[in-house]
Amino acid sequence: MSITKMDVEHVAKLARLDLSENEKDEFTNQLNAILKYAEQLNELNTDDVAPTSHAMPLVNVMREDETRPSLPIEKVLLNAPDEEDGQFKVPAVLE
Asked: Does pLDDT of 26 surpass 90?
């Protein structure tokens, strides 16, 4: 697979970039060099490699859910800047 100058022009148009002819040629060469480098991965034998989503094994460390009594409403509302009828009072966001 290779990138053509038309491909670069198309992507530049989508990105609303105004590229000079020199820049179009330069980006075409750079993108083709990247693809050529990535094609080297096809030479690797990956038959015995298990598919992974991460390079390192990840394990979630989670505690068991435990039911506990809630804080009393009076204690919770001590942190509220304003309260009304046992609830947090906040500024109106709708008129």
From this structure: yes
